[in-house]
Amino acid sequence: MDARLRQAVAVGRFGSFSKAADAVGVTQSAVTKSVADLERRLGYPIFHRTSRGVVPTDEGRVFLERALRLLTDAAELLGQGRQADPHAGTLRVGVFPGTIEWLLAWPLEQLLARHPSIRLDITTGAKEHGLRMLEHGDVDVAIGMEIAFAGKPQFHCDRIATIHPSTFVRRGHPALSMQIQVPADLAPYPIILPAEVWEQSTLHHFAEIYGPERTDWFHKVENFALTCKVVESTDAIGVVDAGFAATGYFRERFCTLEAFPLPPTPICCATREQWTPKPAAAALIALLRQVHGRAGPHSDLDNRLAAHTR
């Protein structure tokens, strides 16, 4: 592995060329030259130099994060022969969008109970960011809507579940006493969506309800606990999966709206086609399929996703 990567990561960690040099056991001038060589090669500065030290540039921060992951992978790969546990090391998981993180709750609990030597690195983000991270090897496995990975032969996909979403409102919501004939009758009430809606047919469905010209018909909220808080305190409409809607926690506070249906959403785990998943990634995928693939997504969250409870 290129020693310049290790030296640049050390500079980013310590915020100082001299401290980085001490940490990696070379001279300060050697570290300065290594970073300068990398910056010429990359075509952009990795660090801002100041009188009080150095801080990464925006591009430099992305570079250093990837460099650290490469160094970690190399250390794990070269140390595999000495490891009694093939699952040991960092498992990098991407969840795109973050609103489906709950799918990981029970599988991760079981995974860590079986393989306590696994160290997790979980990240979330928008679809395009997730696809780039998987393609570049920045995550070992990506969990997301199946449609996001469709038509991309560089990825191998395992369907783990199909989410059946429903719309829901607080108890006492005005819509519950209405004679709703069509979804458009709910147009006076804003809906809560994640920052990114991947399924275009769903967007067309919303446009039919709220009208293509309106710009005030939705809230953007990624966190489901916060979605519940907004629904509970306003007349907004939220989106929930059928599994969670069946929990006692949900039924005490909310009601689903049968007149506002949404299409089923297949969820998959994606890995890079050309790489064999590491044992920890394969174990996680197997648990996800086991937990969610039979009777539908398992929402073991009755007492766990209560962040907004009074």
How much helix, percentage-wise, in residues? Answer: 40-55%
> Given the structure, what is the number of helices?
12
Gross geometry: elongated
Number of strands: 12
What is the fourth-level CATH superfamily of the largest domain? Periplasmic binding protein-like II
Largest sheet: 5 strands, mixed
* Overall number of structural domains: 3
Distance between the termini: 52 Å
CATH architecture of the largest domain: 3-Layer(aba) Sandwich
**Low-pLDDT ranges:** 306-310
Assembly form of the protein: single chain
Binned strand content:
15-25%
Strand/helix succession: HHHEEHEHEHEHEEEHEHEHHEEH
Could you name the CATH class of the largest domain? Alpha Beta
Main sheet strand line-up? 4-3-5-12-6
Describe the structure in brief:
The protein has twelve helices and twelve strands. By secondary structure, it is α/β, with parallel strands linked by helices. The chain has three domains: 76 residues, Arc Repressor Mutant, subunit A; 105 residues, Periplasmic binding protein-like II (D-Maltodextrin-Binding Protein, domain 2), CATH 3.40.190; 93 residues, 3-Layer(aba) Sandwich (D-Maltodextrin-Binding Protein, domain 2), CATH 3.40.190.
